[in-house]
Write a structure and sequence with these properties.
Radius of gyration: 15 Å
Distance between the termini: 18 Å
Organism: Streptomyces alanosinicus
Strand order of the largest sheet: 1-4
Helix content: 40-55%
Number of strands: 4
Protein name: Aminoglycoside phosphotransferase domain-containing protein
Order of helices and strands: HHEEEEHHHH
InterPro entries: Aminoglycoside_PTrfase, Kinase-like_dom_sf
Strand content: 5-15%
C-alpha cells in the first residue's frame, strides 16, 4: 500500500469537502502503520469489487478480470466487503474468513485508496461510478 501513499494523499486533498479529509487521512495513516502480512503468501484476485462479479438469476456466477492476480497479502481483496456488503454482512464475512485486525485495517486502506482513485478519475463524468465510489469510501471510513 505504501506505493499508493502519494496518490492517496493527493486524492484526499481533491475530495476534501465531498468527504471528510481528516477522517480519510486518519484511516489512511492508520492503515499504513498496520502490521504487514507475516504469514505464508496466499493467492489474491487484486481487483475484487462489484464490477468484477457476474450474476445470473440473482446469484454469483463468475468473477472476472484477473489482471491483478498475485500471491502475498490478501488485504487488497477485502475491498469487496466495502463495495458490496452492509456493516452486518461485513462482520459475518470477516468472521467466516477469520480476518485478523491488521489485515482488516489494511483492507479498509485498500478500499479507501481504490475508491479515491476511481472517484477522482471518473465520478465527474459517470454518475454510476460516483455513486459506487461514494459508497465504497464511506463504508471504508465506517469500517
Amino acid at each position: 500500500m505504501s506505493d499508493r501513499d502519494d496518490a492517496a494523499r493527493v486524492a484526499i486533498a481533491k475530495v476534501d469537502g465531498v468527504f471528510e479529509a481528516a477522517a480519510m487521512t486518519e484511516l489512511w495513516d492508520t492503515a499504513l502503520r498496520a502490521p504487514g502480512w507475516d504469514r505464508s503468501p496466499v493467492w489474491f484476485h487484486g481487483d475484487f469489487h462489484t464490477g468484477n462479479l457476474l450474476t445470473a438469476d440473482g446469484r454469483l456466477s463468475a468473477v472476472i478480470d484477473f489482471g491483478g492476480l498475485g500471491i502475498g497479502d490478501p488485504a487488497c481483496d477485502m475491498v469487496i466487503a466495502f463495495t458490496l456488503m452492509s456493516a452486518g454482512s461485513r462482520a459475518v464475512f470477516r468472521d467466516a474468513l477469520g480476518v485478523d485486525d491488521a489485515t482488516w485495517l489494511r483492507g479498509r486502506g485498500w478500499a479507501l485508496a481504490t475508491g479515491l482513485n476511481a472517484h477522482t478519475s471518473y465520478a465527474a463524468v459517470n454518475p454510476r461510478v460516483a455513486a459506487q465510489t461514494t459508497r465504497q469510501i464511506n463504508q471504508a471510513l465506517i469500517g
